[in-house]
Amino acid sequence: MQALEQELKALIISSLALDDMGPDDIDSAAPLFGDGLGLDSIDALELGLALKNRYGMNFSADSDENKRHFASVHALAQYVGAHRKEVQ
Length: 88
Prior knowledge:
This protein is mostly helical.
């Protein structure tokens, strides 16, 4: 799971143009939104698109469900690990 978390951190950095950060700067357990990494709703849309392009994943319209999946890198890795379809 650690390798997938690192991969997701790199995807977050590249898809959101967080050029001043490296994967080690992102705590896997920290929230992605708000006080954690500080992402916003636009970032969520961009990240969702990056996940769709990279892993062939679609997310539901249920915002509570998506909040759980996008809670942290660790939570996102668990969801992606269970549902991804490698697209590359």
